[in-house]
Amino acid sequence: MSYVVETLSHLLDQTAFANLSYGNYIMIAVACVFLYLAIAKGFEPLLLVPIAFGMLLVNIYPDIIASPEETSNGVGGLLYYFYTLDEWSILPSLIFLGVGAMTDFGPLIANPISFLLGAAAQFGIFAAYLMAILLGFSDQAAAAVSIIGGADGPTSIFLAGKLGQSSLMGPIAVAAYSYMALVPIIQPPIMKLFTTKEERAIHMDNLRPVSKLEKILFPIIVTIIVCLLLPTTAPLVGMLMLGNLFRECGVVRQLSETAQNALMYIVVILLGTSVGASTSAEAFLNFTTIKIVVLGLIAFAFGTAAGVLFGKLLCHLTKGKINPLIGSAGVSAVPMAARVSQKVGAEEDPTNFLLMHAMGPNVAGVIGTAVAAGIFMAIFGV
Predict the structure, then answer these.
(1) Which residue of 34, 76, 152, 340 pairs with 68 in a disulfide if CB–CB is 3.0 to 4.6 A?
(2) In this predicted structure, what is the pLDDT of residue 12?
């Protein structure tokens, strides 16, 4: 009888119930909220489902991300090895390869002024950098946190790893991906605040056709120029442009299809679950995380506002030929931000079609955020 009692007691001790803290239960609840937003509301499910499930797993079974030094047999947890690929900047770079293969740069080529709108939307990053320093973050930690303003999860992870801010990578990545998913909620009020009804209803002229030669030359030229100026951006900008060259050159269809489908989805699974697994209660529930989340929201709001305000300036200079709403798409959340520009414009005039015009600043924002990360790495000599 004592053997049975002892065995049952031992089994009870091995259950998660015996080892969970109140913080773990809070994070499990947060994971369930994220799953609800992804599944029921459709907010970026490809990102939020794996992130939320990784969050769920690590707060039930923390050893799933334990390092080899923390285990009795010298073998790390499953998600530890996934997370190592984040720290080595492998997964973020592969995400950019897939994004490049999926993205048509035609709208940006057809309307080069979109580069300015994409650049303007990066203002939020540098504003958040200064605020982070005022809140007590070190220079490198402030840079890693501020990149959230670009609404670009892979770049946020990439920069945090390069600047040696692995301890902040979980909160930074979750904040960045959360704001990417919440673009349809966060951006419209800001867009409407800084524009008039008449401005939102502006129709833009059709974009000019872009030749195949232009589309082939674009990724090559951008890679040469950007990487010569900021060599540290090569892993991101280089992979983005390589993926796009796969798409446009027409002679490597299999590589293009692999990059934008099978490889992309595999990397999203690995990156999403590992990012979610970095949010254990011990690492996530603290005042530093709150500051990161708030700074990320401020940065994202400032970036959206800066893009819209610069769009208003261009609208004035072009005598009403540019709809300021497309400036909000200058953040890096592709293609969600461009869709939001279309949605808000269509609310004023259902016949207004802004999507392709907004894709220009949206794609420029992807490049701009990578460049901003490269500037920070150059400043700190990484």
Answers:
(1) 76
(2) 61
